[in-house]
């Protein structure tokens, strides 16, 4: 079946300004407002991909995460990378790949890095469905303006340098109940209830969440789930430092030289890639699970 992308999606991709709804930011529409017909089918398909990623797009998913693990409430929650707040700001330049990115390209990167999967084709059914859903959530938002709630709230610098021992203690006390004592998440049979935070089933080294500052901001604002802002700033930094100091799948941009990959893609203080932690080098191909991006992909 051929789907029609909502007009807001086409306007954003083309860079056309939509009518200005005024200075006040509005939230996304309720799920009951998804329309009937082919547009509604595309929107519901996108929602299914966001909330049931591995089941809905198995050929492109490579781990046990769902898009909704970071985009909470299926991309609705302010301060948890809400899709409605991001959609109207594309196309946009990204330093990560040194080019203008469409919204579809941005979602493709989520599959590559956060879902540790294969890239769905641009213009294909999966990315069009996610774009249809995000465009529907974003109706009424101002094009080219970041509304309050976009991304993650800024977090204050840590009072003390982050520490693995303190982070391990925070994880054991607060996080392990949902994510497992070994960080591998919780399952009910084959169903992933809560996601793994490291190891082969988690996000890879190219994901934004593998940067300690981004992880700390997300954790501080949103975790434990339903009780955000209950951790201190120091606790959020410490546990993010600990989580991102664990083994996880390889950065798909790795081309055989660990130092070169760090210099080109991780040359920042809050990346632990290619550093020594607990006697091992993070990202070492001998001990690092694989990514799933085919050779020759244009990042």
TrEMBL record:
The UniProt keyword set, sorted, is: Heme, Iron, Metal-binding, Signal
State the Gene Ontology terms under molecular function.
Answer: electron transfer activity; heme binding; metal ion binding
Matching PROSITE patterns: CYTC (PS51007)
Which SUPFAM superfamilies does the entry mention?
Answer: Cytochrome c
Which InterPro entries has this protein been placed in?
Answer: Cyt_c-like_dom, Cyt_c-like_dom_sf, Cytochrome_c-type_DH
Q: Which residues form the signal peptide?
A: 1-19
Positions of the UniProt region annotated as Disordered: 280-299
Q: Does the keyword tRNA processing apply?
A: no
Sequence ranges assigned to domain Cytochrome c in this UniProt record = 162-247
Specify the protein name. Cytochrome C
Which species is this record about?
Sandarakinorhabdus cyanobacteriorum
